[in-house]
Prior knowledge:
The complex is a heterodimer. By secondary structure, chain A is of the alpha/beta class. Helices cover 40% and strands 19% of the residues of chain A. A four-stranded parallel sheet of chain A has the order 2-1-3-4, with helices on one face. By secondary structure, chain B is α/β, with parallel strands linked by helices. Chain B contains ten helices and 22 strands. Chain B is elongated, with a radius of gyration of 27 Å. The interface between A and B is medium-sized, with 27 and 29 residues.
Amino acid sequence: MSMAQRLLVLACSRSAGEALAALEATGQTLPPDVTWVNLPCGGSVDVLHILRALEAGAEKVWVLACYEGACESLEGNRWAEKRVQWVQALLQEIGLGPERVVFRAISPTMAADLKAWLEEE
Amino acid sequence: MNPMPGRPRGVIVLGAAPEALCAVRELAALGYAVAWLPLEEAQAPAALPPNVAIYPAAELVGLGGYAGAFCAQVRRGEAIECLPGAAVLIALGNARCYPQERYGLPLGPRVLTPPQARQRLKDRTLEALLSHRKAHFLVMLDWGGETSRETAVEALHTARALRQNHAEVTLFYRDLKVDSAPLERLTRRMREEGVVFCRYIEVEVRFEEGGVHIAAPDGLVRGDMLILPEAVQPHPATLPLAALLKLRVGKDGYFQEVNVRQVRPGLTNRKGIYVAGRCHMDADREAALEDVSHVVASLDAFLHSLDEPPSGPTAEVERDRCIRCLTCVRTCPHAAAEVVEREGITAAYVEKAACWGCGICAAHCPVQAIALKGQAVPSWLAPTAQGVSIR
């Protein structure tokens, strides 16, 4: 298993990916215990991606996608949010904390917010 | 800005709005062969460039193919003809109505719309009113809801024309956005010429003693006629055309543009299909024609990109695992997936030229038969591993 244990980020490359690139352009790097996976769109986040990440030992999984109305594939962000909710319900059912999976809307200009979120975590 | 030599490409233009004519001219000037389907009764312009073919009485019954190789199926009389084109540009324009419910007032001798007022100026039926004494016209914008940009600008022009015919004109407005140089010039000239601009929050309109009275908090204004702008609504062909072409329509009933980052004007949810002008935005005539130029540039850039090798991930179906459930066909926001028979197998197929590589179909596929090619996801995360497939 080749992943950091603390946090896995499944990111829409059109919004979160851009925000990360902006953060990295200022010379900052992700904390070593965070694994970042860029996906083409929030809509390509599969329930199985999230479950596999938890199975692989991630403490938390973030799904970052565009704001409502900002998805270039129209509803990719909504699918991402729905899948997160579905996984949360599943975790609740089996007695794991649903807060281990988080959906967050982000835009390409939110590098500062992204940094703050990562520090908070 | 010229098409590649030796590879003449065609563009299909749909619609009869002024924007369509503008788009046809601009595309023809760039060297594209244009097939223009007005889709409604319209007067053909006198002179069109030689690389434009107009099909006035043609009915569009379908659109086959994908970006770079569309085929508009057109019924002309009995026969169905296929018009090829690398891209499609839609410029339907919008429709007008008098919003009687919003105003609570029917049109009548004392209530006119701006086009009616202009028509009466033209055929001189307002003459008696204008000559026997100083007539006073009250132009009321934003009453019962914001007036659309297009009809508000039309009302401004009408107010100015009335003023130039020596009438007194008071223009009531609540929220007039003067955000372009031509509009700034227009309103400044109107003030100079003596049109009175009056901002209001709440007004009461009464008809008394053969006149119109507008009671605003600042006082009472008496006039002879009330000019109420029309409202715009989506062109009636918008929904049928959207259904035929699998395009998205927004909550407001207009075509939905997917131009999130403001870099690809007019782009719709399908690659190679563009919308221009008032069929997707509220704009006055100048702004609509400006939008056409932006969209034509965007479309031109797209047609040039067809000459380069495709980049970015695209969805690919493992066709012998497909269970033909049509989930991908249903969920693809870009109408790139279909179930077809190829090499003896009937299964889902994602057309590369139409695919945006968003991966929505891959995430939905219940048997993980679709993968994004060119997209690196760590192997320990990939959901296609043993034990999760239900096959």
